[in-house]
Amino acid sequence: MESRRARRTRTLICAAAASAVVMGGTAYVTAQAHSGVPAVSSAVTPSASASGNASASDIGEASVEPVAQPTVNRDALLAEAVRGVPVEDGADVSVAVLDVDSGEGASYGEGTFDTASIVKVDILATLLLQAQDAGRQLTAAEQAYATAMIEHSDNDSASALWRTIGGAQGLDAANERFGLTGTEGGDGMLWGLTQTTAVDQLALLQQVFGEESELNAASRSYLRELMGQIAAGQQWGVSAAGDDAAWALKNGWLPRTATGLWDVNSIGRVTVDGRDYLVAVLSDGNSTKEKGIALVEAAARAAVSVFAGTSLPASSAATAG
Q: Are 280 and 96 in contact (CB under 8 A)?
């Protein structure tokens, strides 16, 4: 017969073994929590603790890990949206968009395009940067040229300021500071044939509408004000993707002499349900200016829909082709 002392010793050994099992389960759960993905729960179930027989399945249930949220591929969504935009044979389009609030962006299309008159934003940004460096304000004549150039897309004013900034050399030097890597000023006085990309134009818009900019607050405010007062007949383009009157933009259009085809571009900021988006759309090979405008507007709507979750108007497909 087992003695009282022996029975007491055996009871203590069993209790220690049970404690070891529970502690082992706790150590396992803790290790899971430090693996990089936090565990939903690290508590051992009362039944397992009471019995001292926590199984592997019990421990697994105690350390359930959350499922990681998938990363949204905005470029792929934009490509899908733009593929739904009819493009006539021979035409090409590229678009870049940025959700200002979240900092997320996307782009579609590669290659360079003629800027046409959207370069006028770049010309004025360069002039303002040069004035900042010199510690001076724009002259009355420069301000008059700037207003006519941006609000009415006046070409003579653009040529005057192109000369003031030093032509392509001055533009390229400023663009290096602005972070534009795929833009090259046009030869001689051909500022409208400056070559650029949609991604570069989005970077330029960030210099105008963002806080981290080579341009100071006064220069940015001045450019924004002019881009928000475009002449009535030129209020098309990216504005089609935003709420009424909640936009600031600059458009460019140019018929190419050799082919008779049109370059049609639009850059700017739009607002949808209180959120701001920067949008740049470039196109070439359009048979008419009107078809180019329709293409640019449809592409702008598609770009913003990727972030705003808005559905494309039925008229987009009808007017783009």
A: yes
